[in-house]
Amino acid sequence: MIRNLFNKVRSDPFLRDNAILFMSLSLLNILGYLFHFYIGRALGPEGYSIVGALLSIMYIITVPLYTIQTGMASFVSKFKVKEEFGKIAYLFRKSLRKMLIYGFIISVGFIIISPLVAKFLNMDNLVPLFVLALFMFFALLLPINRGLLQGLQRFKGLGLNYILEGITKLGSALIFIPLGLGVSGAVGSFALSFFIPFVLAFFILGKWLKVRGERFNTKELYAFSLPVLIMLAGMTLFYTLDVILVKHFFDSLDAGYYAAASLLSKILFFGTLSISVVLFPKVTELHAKDKATKQILVKSIGLVLLFCIPVTLFYFLFPEFVINLLFGKDYLAASKIVGMFALTITIFSINYLMSFYAVAIGKRKFIWLIMLLAILMVLSIWFIHNTLLNVILILLVLNILLFIIMFIITLKK
Description:
Elements: H1 2-11, H2 13-61, H3 63-81, H4 85-120, H5 127-139, H6 142-151, H7 155-176, H8 182-204, H9 206-210, H10 219-238, H11 241-249, H12 252-271, H13 273-288, H14 294-317, H15 319-326, H16 338-360, H17 367-383, H18 388-411
Helix pairs in contact: 1-2, 2-7, 2-8, 2-11, 2-12, 2-13, 3-4, 3-6, 3-10, 3-13, 4-5, 5-8, 6-8, 7-8, 10-16, 10-17, 11-12, 11-17, 12-14, 12-16, 13-14, 13-16, 14-16, 16-18, 17-18
């Protein structure tokens, strides 16, 4: 039976590529969660609440990271179908030059406003925010290389790049934290984990550094990137701003419990992220050839549920065991919300997948609805935040509403 399953995966390009990237991202996530469990215990709930809030800022500010990678992957996929390799090389070099400039501007801008950010998050130390600015610079460069790998469907090279990120992050934390760098050391580990994979990706992409570029009008890329940026911004707000708002409205202990529950629930999202990464270029390529794509969506949703349902049930049945095992007894108060949080993230993971599918087949109008719901989430939490459970219920209701909208959109021809 196992041998038959192995042969089926090997013979089906979609399942094979999913397996490669799933294993790579799973290892990245395992290393990432070991990093979080380590610093969670080392810094305690109060210190970890700061890391959780800063991590959410990383996600929000680096939305362009996923936009760049998605845009690169989409256009590289189309050029690959037409064998226009010179255009791929030109796009790669021009994008890299632009991101070097934008990364510098954004990093300097964040350093300037860092005192205001520190005040909102009730932070006394500005150093972690300065280190965060360094992370932003590298975070805008890495997706250029990864977008090229994804669009060319070189998933082995992309998988190795993700694994290197996880190894660097955990290894750096094991050095920085014992040296007494605290929150700054944790954030510095993130910065280094983006810099090293960025540099080493050039060895995998050596061939494309030698191809002669063929100039073309890149306005079409920007026209594609803007709606994707809005879509990803809206989706990112759904799993980031809640942590920041909780850090603002609740005391440090409650914020630490919420950050721990949020991180454990995001195992479901990051554990299925590889499915969206594989789905996007394949659906884009099939759509460009005017071929059917719904079967890939159905397979992808099935894979998401296959992973998420057992984990969510386990969180509901054994919440204290999970919290105590991974974060320690200081975080046991988070066991009251981790199950409901996991259910919310399960629905969100399906919404995320369907959003990428919709963009891959050229649908755009739904994007503004995502942003509208994200704004509604922020306003709801701002005015209704009596308990941590209230916050999660707001996220759950809005994700169910988004699921209904995305289901109708993907069914519509």
